[in-house]
Amino acid sequence: EVQLVESGGGLVQAGGSLNLSCSISGYLGDDYAIGWFRQAPGKELEGVSCIRSRGGTTYYADSVKGRFTISRDNAKVRVYLQMNSLKPEDTAVYYCNKLPPLAWGQGTQVTVSS
């Protein structure tokens, strides 16, 4: 059974940084993508970034491009989202998931104060 568990969220002031971690267990296959998503209160789920296991191709939403960086460890058991220059509008629950998504986990809360 594949499980993805998010961690690393917290409260930070605008302009600050956080590094989210997605811990992956179970077999995902040889070629897959892991994405970070977020959902702010009253808003729809938004895709933030993703990375492909084969080749490491990355994608970023325009709203985070240049501020967020997605990466993975060599063993491909963790995917990270380094978030810099955080803005209050980045406040949301952040989730990681395979693409296409499996069951959603609990997520990790990111709160950016102004």
Textual characterization of the structure:
The protein has 114 residues and is mainly β. The chain has no helices and ten strands. The strands form two sheets. The protein has a six-stranded mixed beta sheet with strand order 2-10-9-4-5-6, with no helix packed on it. Strands 1-3-8-7 form a four-stranded antiparallel beta sheet, with no helix packed on it. Strand 9 and strand 10 form a beta hairpin. The model has no long low-confidence stretch (mean pLDDT 95).
Question: How would you describe this structure in keywords?
Answer:
single chain; 114 residues; mainly beta; six-stranded mixed beta sheet; four-stranded antiparallel beta sheet
Q: Into which percent range does the helicity of residues fall?
A: under 10%
Number of H- or I-type helical stretches: 0
- Low-pLDDT runs of 5+ residues are none
Radius of gyration, in angstroms, nearest whole number: 13 Å
Strands of the largest sheet, in order across it?
Answer: 2-10-9-4-5-6
Kindly report the average pLDDT value.
95
Structural class assignment: mainly beta
Distance between the termini: 40 Å
Q: What fraction of the residues are assigned to beta strands by DSSP?
A: over 45%
